[in-house]
Amino acid sequence: MKDVNLIARHWHHLPIDEVVALLEGDRERGLDRFQVEHRLEAFGANTITARKGQGPLIRFLLQFHQPLIYILIASGVVTAGLREWVDSGVIFGVVLV
């Protein structure tokens, strides 16, 4: 392959025939086996590593990671400490909703 800066090009703006010519491919057949092996050695496999997702419990707990929620939880704890069960129940209900 020629000295083509593959990363800096805006491939989506180029005509198809120009892309095929720059990549030294064939529009109908693609790349031959030698080109594929050479590019695998030069650039590596064309794979995307999957990012490990967060579990459902972590995603649920991250919903409460906001300053206003912290204030509501603190006020719910204070009202529970004052034995205002209805008020603390309403506050915790609002936090959960």
Question: What percentage of the residues does DSSP assign to strands (E)?
Answer: under 5%
The main β sheet shows up as: none
Q: Provide the helix percentage.
A: 40-55%
Order of helices and strands: HHHHH
How many helix segments? 5
Ranges where pLDDT stays below 50 over 5 or more residues in a row are none
Number of strands: 0
Q: What is the element layout, followed by pairings?
A:
Layout: H1 16-22, H2 33-43, H3 56-62, H4 67-81, H5 85-96
Helix pairs in contact: 4-5
How would you summarize this macromolecular structure in one to three sentences?
By secondary structure, the protein is an all-alpha fold.
Structure description:
This protein is mainly alpha-helical and 97 residues long. It folds into two domains: 11-43, no CATH class; 56-96, no CATH class. It is built from five helices and no strands. It has helices spanning 16-22, 33-43, 56-62, 67-81, 85-96. Helix 4 (67-81) packs antiparallel against helix 5. The longest helix has 15 residues, at 67-81. The protein is rod-shaped. The model has no long low-confidence stretch (mean pLDDT 88).
Main features:
mainly alpha; 0% strand; rod-shaped; 2 domains; 54% helix
